[in-house]
Design brief:
alpha/beta; Rossmann fold; L-fucose Isomerase, Chain A, domain 3; 2 domains; 6-stranded antiparallel β-barrel; elongated; Fuc/Ara_isomerase_C; Fucose_isomerase_N/cen_sf; L-fucose isomerase C-terminal domain-containing protein
Length: about 450
């Protein structure tokens, strides 16, 4: 009788929060001794990488064994199917699998253990047959080839599983939209039904004016924590400044909603009401939330917030959202800027994150700094009349002085910056760009393919 193994591992730093089912498939007419070595190595590596791995204790060599194993599995407990053609096996195996399980499939073929003489596994043909069957059944899948100890194979599977983790998180993502977008900022809005159908993202509206009113009623002992949190990273913060107090009150009120309602990201209408009604800038609120993992876009830019969320998940650090405001042909660079929002840790360490006032409204408190240097990926989940698309650029954030009041970063592009600028304008890209300090181009391309949206790589 087959045994079901459930492996859990919560100690690894980069472990994926995924529950996978690993199905090693083979036939007894092939070299199962060599196949068992691959199975054991595969299971061990998958267990190291994922939170939970459900697998049989040996290779499944008949459809009856597969059916018995699957009968013990609850579909809701699984995020991804890893279907390994340890040896050749006909399509009845994969047909039975997808009849039972609706999840994304990763088809895995291994190398022949030797060349010359008997074809011991014929795994590649098994994978070929499996992929054909999945395509005929219109099932989403990916294919990988290589042995479980190969680094290239491990990186590819990790990338695919990381994409599935992000897809899962997008389906669980609720964006708190605090006020409608400002007049004329049409790109900040979304079609909620289409957004949910394509990405799984949910929208929850929060009344901005009600938030202003109720945040002022919070007791000092509750909102003072927000000031103390900011003081840990913000230079020159005056806790007695009225705008700092208003920041703390509003931040705390929204934080309570986030925790009570399960909100994971924000899109905030930052003007004109923040200045005219609250008497403070929204920039500091957005900065602190983003620093602490709740990505927050200004001007109620919903797709901007989603873009930041995706970059945070793949890049593993706080993202930035800015306008493209300047071109320097001599440096082959462009500058991204915003009037005072930026996660504290993005500041150039030479200056740190400094408290300031809004460059136009002269109200605090905002961030004043140039961003740190390093390799970056620039991206946006974009929307036009044809549907969604993912826009991607890579670059190098330069160690240059702050160029404009607020927060800004100069980025050297690998391709001609002037030509890139013209391409962006010709493609009608929205004027908010998300940036993260990591090279995640391949991950973004894979995510786009998984979501069924167009990818445009500019640089």
């Amino acid at each position: 009788m087959l045994e079901t193994s459930v492996h859990s591992n919560s100690k690894l730093k980069n472990k994926l929060n995924m529950s996978i089912i690993y199905l090693p498939i083979g036939r007894k007419t092939f070299d199962l001794e060599a196949g068992e070595k691959y199975r054991a190595e595969s299971e061990a590596w998958l267990t190291e990488m994922c939170e939970k791995v459900i697998s049989p204790s040996e290779i499944l060599t008949s459809v009856e064994e597969l059916e018995q194993f699957l009968s013990e599995i609850h579909s809701n407990d699984i995020d991804v199917i890893i279907y390994q053609s340890v040896t050749f096996a006909d399509a009845e195996f994969i047909a039975k699998t997808i009849e039972k399980l609706p999840q994304q499939v990763i088809v895995w073929s291994v190398r022949e253990p030797s060349v010359g003489g008997r074809l011991r596994l014929n795994s590649l043909t098994g994978g070929n047959s499996t992929c054909h069957t999945l395509k005929v059944h219109n099932r989403s899948y990916r294919f990988v080839f290589g042995n479980p100890t190969e680094s290239a194979l491990q990186k590819r599977i990790y990338r695919y599983l990381k994409t599935e983790e992000v897809v899962k998180k997008l389906a669980q993502l609720t964006i708190g939209v605090v006020g409608d977008h400002p007049p004329g900022f049409y790109f900040s809005s979304t079609d909620e039904k289409e957004l949910e159908e394509r990405t799984g993202v949910h929208i929850q509206n929060i009344d901005l004016l009600e938030a202003f009113k109720k945040c002022a009623e919070l007791p000092k002992e509750e909102w003072l924590q927000a000031v103390e949190r900011a003081e840990k990273q913000v230079i020159g913060l005056n806790r007695s400044d009225e705008t700092v107090i208003k920041f703390a009150q509003f931040y705390t009120y929204i934080k309570n909603i986030i925790e009570n309602e399960g909100i994971n990201a924000l899109a905030v209408r930052c003007w004109p009401e923040f200045f005219n009604e609250l008497g403070a800038a929204a920039c500091s609120t957005l900065s602190q939330f983003t620093e602490d993992g709740v990505v927050s876009s200004c001007e109620s830019d919903i797709h901007g917030s989603i873009s930041m969320f995706i970059l945070q998940e793949f890049g593993g650090s706080a993202p930035y959202l800015g306008d493209l405001v300047h071109l320097n042909e001599e440096n082959n660079s462009v500058t991204f800027w915003h009037c005072g929002a930026g996660a504290y840790s993005l500041a150039n360490p030479k200056t740190g994150a400094t408290a300031g006032v809004h460059p136009n409204r002269k109200l605090g408190f905002t961030m004043e700094f140039g961003l740190k240097a390093g390799a970056v990926t620039i991206a946006r989940l974009s929307k036009n009349e044809e549907g969604y698309r993912m826009l991607i650029m890579k670059g190098e954030a330069l160690d240059t002085p702050q160029q404009f009041a607020g927060t800004s970063v100069e980025v050297r592009l690998p391709k001609n910056a002037s030509e890139t600028l013209y391409h962006l304008m010709e493609d009608g890209v929205e004027p908010h760009y998300a940036i993260v300090y990591a090279d995640i181009e391949e991950q973004l391309i894979d995510l786009s393919k998984r979501l069924g949206i167009e990818t445009i790589v500019y640089a």
